[in-house]
Amino acid sequence: MTTTQRVGVWFHGARGSVATTAICGLLALRAGLTAPTGVVTEQLGLPDGVLPGWDDLVLGGQDVSTVPLRKRAAQLTDDGVLPARLLAALESQLDEVEPWIVHGYRPTGPDESILDGVRRTAAAITEFRQANGLERVVVVNVSSTEPIFPARPEHDDLARLRAAIEQPGDEVLPPSSVVAYAAITAGCGYVDFTPSAGIRLPALRAYAALRGVPYAGSDGKTGETLLRTVLAPMFAERAFAVRSWAGTNLLGGGDGANLADPERAGGKLESKRRGLAALLGPGVTAPLHIDNVPDLGEQKIAWDHVSFEGFLGSRMSLQFTWTGCDSALAAPLVLDLARLTLAAQRAGQAGALTALAAFFKDPLGADEHRFAEQMRHLREWAGELGAGR
Amino acid sequence: MTTTQRVGVWFHGARGSVATTAICGLLALRAGLTAPTGVVTEQLGLPDGVLPGWDDLVLGGQDVSTVPLRKRAAQLTDDGVLPARLLAALESQLDEVEPWIVHGYRPTGPDESILDGVRRTAAAITEFRQANGLERVVVVNVSSTEPIFPARPEHDDLARLRAAIEQPGDEVLPPSSVVAYAAITAGCGYVDFTPSAGIRLPALRAYAALRGVPYAGSDGKTGETLLRTVLAPMFAERAFAVRSWAGTNLLGGGDGANLADPERAGGKLESKRRGLAALLGPGVTAPLHIDNVPDLGEQKIAWDHVSFEGFLGSRMSLQFTWTGCDSALAAPLVLDLARLTLAAQRAGQAGALTALAAFFKDPLGADEHRFAEQMRHLREWAGELGAGR
Amino acid sequence: MTTTQRVGVWFHGARGSVATTAICGLLALRAGLTAPTGVVTEQLGLPDGVLPGWDDLVLGGQDVSTVPLRKRAAQLTDDGVLPARLLAALESQLDEVEPWIVHGYRPTGPDESILDGVRRTAAAITEFRQANGLERVVVVNVSSTEPIFPARPEHDDLARLRAAIEQPGDEVLPPSSVVAYAAITAGCGYVDFTPSAGIRLPALRAYAALRGVPYAGSDGKTGETLLRTVLAPMFAERAFAVRSWAGTNLLGGGDGANLADPERAGGKLESKRRGLAALLGPGVTAPLHIDNVPDLGEQKIAWDHVSFEGFLGSRMSLQFTWTGCDSALAAPLVLDLARLTLAAQRAGQAGALTALAAFFKDPLGADEHRFAEQMRHLREWAGELGAGR
Amino acid sequence: MTTTQRVGVWFHGARGSVATTAICGLLALRAGLTAPTGVVTEQLGLPDGVLPGWDDLVLGGQDVSTVPLRKRAAQLTDDGVLPARLLAALESQLDEVEPWIVHGYRPTGPDESILDGVRRTAAAITEFRQANGLERVVVVNVSSTEPIFPARPEHDDLARLRAAIEQPGDEVLPPSSVVAYAAITAGCGYVDFTPSAGIRLPALRAYAALRGVPYAGSDGKTGETLLRTVLAPMFAERAFAVRSWAGTNLLGGGDGANLADPERAGGKLESKRRGLAALLGPGVTAPLHIDNVPDLGEQKIAWDHVSFEGFLGSRMSLQFTWTGCDSALAAPLVLDLARLTLAAQRAGQAGALTALAAFFKDPLGADEHRFAEQMRHLREWAGELGAGR
């Protein structure tokens, strides 16, 4: 099998900070202008050809915003994410990506059905694939976190869902799930980097299984939760009794404004809490906040305070402060996930890619939250991908 | 094989804070007065009988101090390590341990040889074993950290060492190594919880191999280094480029005063540094300090600041503050190590117990510093111990 | 004027943690069993006799709880506030205070008026004063923070308020204000250490002015806000542009549970915010949380993160973590405020004691929040008290 | 008195980071391209004309380096101190300053006397003043911190010093003191922003008094010490018993490399310690470190941990982390000090300007270390300067 076939990455939210950083980053890697720092797949030690190379990836996507990529990239430079020298060097390549970003899906009007939206989206992806001569395409959701979408019985039953999406005016799915549905319809692998509904709904997961496409999600693990899944296993292994684990997140940028809305934050807070309970059991007091602090820009700051009990009831504590650059943390993982999901699909895998749990706050199909164990699983799985060529 | 045989733990430094906490803790566990919080071996899920039970362990040891155990325990209560209710409940049991703590080894005078000291120490351990009808005894070094001992060619060659220790007045070994030599001579397993020379000298390790006794060390991993070996692998797995990792340790108690002496701190600082370099490679700026802050008493505080680079050269940081109770962190690990080494010897193992690396800053015979991997190794090894009965 | 006249301190919430700590602390100071660490009035350098001495203060109060003081004091020992040796030494003196703590005010039933409650409370205070031969009494509110009480037009007009409190079944005032009203009626000075309504209502302040009694409040400044009023002036003096000041408070004990109720926390969060805006102006993003973390007990932990801009737009930050013992921080200030308010009343002062602003998050009658300026004002005022004898 | 006379600022160390930032900052302020954030004198509320305006200041100086200002400014942009838009806007103005930066003083050879060096330096300053038609010039030391210079009896006696500096080959003074001597000789005010000997030597202070020139120093207070002098008074006012105050400083840039040399750090560590002892008394354990962490660049990070005792012996702690931009913190204070010293000289003041203590870690001629008190003194003094015109 040759490894030179070109493949595509279709961003849902292609003009957002994360996608723009991923696009600029890929272009910079391809041009040899930056090192693959923060790129997990580059340190797995896989033989060449197991994963698509930087030159093999073609970029496209959709967004409800129409701000040009050049302008979004310039904003990233102002925010300290993209070095000025890279902005200058990449502008013409950005112009080549620009035409492949189409208008994003918006909730349908009263005369349209969800199925109409699905078909339009699937058609755009297919057009992107055919026009660029791509072997396959992976769809990656990096759009803004949606408010929690009300549960519907159709979400649990593919047949009922199929019926509902044909009804004009019935908004049975949020945009993230419409795009996921379209991705499956177009035969594409799907990655959800956000806590939105996306492909989480059981009916969509059944649909993916039926169509034999792989998927992974959800909610990228880039900061506080990454540290929690690294540190909590230590408390368990050392038999410490964790009594409380309090957390505060200060976010600027669009994400901060978005998550200051308690409805939208709900999903993220829930997925963070689930992870901690899975690691430490149910009896830990764990207040958690996300605050919008616009002046921080792309910087995000997490403070966690852990109170625990040791031998003879002695009281001890650990606190940490994590200061990260939001989009720079997320973007390389997005590239990793795109490569890994494309390789999985090539290898014939379908359904939830549980080996990718290390990338997510709330890993679909996996119960393992311990980061070291997740990475071990990833290495084994990726090694088999390599061996199976 | 029955599991009811009694075994012994011989503390080198039996009246120190760590040993006294371990002794009180064991008595409290045996009496059901405290939970095994912080005891690693209790959460490994081993079948009964694989390890000696709390009732099977008989305590003794040696110390250059003669302060009674009751008084040392009362000091621990003042220092907030031992709850007052436990002190009151355990006093009579402490009196039963008291007679089995003998005068500690002191450097020999001009008319004595090191071998004289070895023989006296080995005789005391043997007397302890026989008088108590013990199947076997493990010797655990929890005495004060020694200054770095000058290297001697005899340290690398068992035959030359044997000759040297017969010479009156030739102090070829520090006390920690004399006791280790005696332990091997008496056929005992040996654990070094300190960074002193102890059994690290190649000649002593050769001697242990020759006599077929197991040993483990060195320098218990209880705080800052524990966190470093938990966190550093995350930076590596996520392909972050760590640029600097600065650390400051504030210690009170005897350990603080002891390690404020740069000569004595040297060993500990060295073992901390080796670990970080093993985890992150050689290019990381890593200033490290140990400060004596007497008012902190048994509390120890570590602050670490990690500066790292992510995707596109973005600069990020992590800092943590660990506030722990020194003896309460160390004591349960000492009990763990005693149980595991006794079980290893029963199972016929000899030489460096590399499976115990998770307990040490500077694991003898092992290159693995990543805590999660170390724990996985420990679990596998302990599982085999259990299966092999 | 002689200085040997005895005076009284009447605690509203006399069986709470703060009052019990203040009571035990005063008894310990009187007995010479503890140093006046944390007592501001002892380091002002005032001549003897300006303030009532520890021997001159007689203690009493009211509480809706009936748990005996001995039991509350034992709880403080368990919580690490009161050393065990003091508990043992003070038990008999606690028994002498016990009879002077009467049943606390509870909201009146449909057949009673607020005035009935006022009269009963005032009578209890007067009985306490007369029976003990006290020159005067100060009433100090250290009861649990009340939920925000709905505004009523009567709160702003003394005549209307007087009419309303005569109506049976009209709960026009919360308990804290009933007790404040009673204190004024009994001719007592009044201190509000909580953010409850207390004496803050304009009608009550008018009543205090009319009756010529002094008062001070509100909401004791013991931790995060203390640091904010110390640090914020530095940012202003150095012309830094503070962009955000985020805060998280972790509280255990009764206060944590109480303030986890957003209605009750409302008052405290408001007073904290007012202070920050007064110090730094209106444009600072300042998210603030109070979390209930029961396992912390009497410990309270505050983490603040300040993001600011310096010369040429450079971005910098300050973060701090304050770990304090709640009741041990509050109790000495309660003793300070009692002494100072008693001395002010003796000196003929009435109305808001603005010189006591340094003690409060939300100082009544004062606009100054800068701690250093507040302390300067206190020193000048206290010096005049001394000079005026 | 008109206010339009032009005055000069002569930097000793004119091509260093602090001087270059001050130069660029002044040019940006003059051009209205930046706000005076971080400039203390702009928030004192002084009437126009009390201090020299940004347009009145003419810049010059000396440096042993010959790297052009443009290049140094570009380095500051790379280090994140100087925004790229300012660098572009200021380049031509930098070229106007360039010719007024002369070769710096280097230790004399065996055939030269210190006096020769003094004369050359004084001549260069005088030439700068005359050629630019300046009313007066202030000399500001912002060169690298010198190693501690060995004490000499001549340092305490002006007559003996005068004799010694005439001896060829006798290096009786370090370069900082040679430049200070030259400044006085040229009739200039002098500011020492470093902990070097500079004008601290009693003989030089006597010389300044004799010649009637004002001076201020030493060692600019920009980070950890600033916070200490803000926080320590709070502990004193609240009667807390501080037991330990540990500090760690992580510095990159030239300052980090320089201060990693224990000899050079000695001066700074000493001045930091003196301040803490002055604020809290002698019994506080106060370990203090300065670490060179090159990857931090212009960022400097200080972590302080304060352990203190409150009421009834309760143990509490405060810790803070300060993350600042070194040159951006220092540069506006350098401009402040230049303006204030020029105004003081115009007003006829001579000797140590104790009113400027707020700017220094080790204020010459002043015992007051409390920042709030220092600022009050500064405001009063500056107000009198304004009134006296």
Q: What's the structural domain tally of chain A? A: 2
Order of helices and strands of chain A: EHEHHEHEHHEHEHEHHEEEHEH
Residues in helices of chain A, as a percent range: 40-55%
Strand order of the largest sheet of chain A: 3-2-1-4-5-6-11
Largest interface: A-B, 57 and 57 residues
Query: For the record, what CATH class of the largest domain in chain A applies?
Result: Alpha Beta
The secondary-structure class of chain A comes to alpha/beta
CATH fold-level name of the largest domain in chain A: Rossmann fold
Backbone shape of chain A: globular
Task: Label this structure with key terms.
homotetramer; 389 residues; alpha/beta; Rossmann fold; Dihydrodipicolinate Reductase, domain 2; 2 domains; seven-stranded parallel beta sheet; four-stranded mixed beta sheet; globular
Overview of the molecule:
Four copies of one chain form a homotetramer. With 389 residues, chain A is an alpha/beta fold. The first copy, chain A, folds into two domains: 7-219 and 328-387, Rossmann fold (3-Layer(aba) Sandwich); 224-325, 2-Layer Sandwich (Dihydrodipicolinate Reductase, domain 2). The first copy, chain A, is 42% helix and 18% strand. The first copy, chain A, has twelve helices and eleven strands. Chain A has helices at residues 17-30, 69-78, 84-97, 114-132, 158-164, 175-185, 202-211, 224-237, 253-259, 262-280, 326-346, 371-387, and strands at 7-12, 57-63, 101-103, 137-141, 189-192, 214-217, 241-251, 288-292, 299-309, 315-325, 351-352. The first copy, chain A, has a seven-stranded parallel beta sheet with strand order 3-2-1-4-5-6-11, with helices on both faces. The first copy, chain A, has a four-stranded mixed beta sheet with strand order 8-7-9-10. The first copy, chain A, starts with 6 loop residues before the first strand and ends with a helix. Chains in contact: A-B, A-C, B-D, C-D. The interface between A and B is large, with 57 and 57 residues.
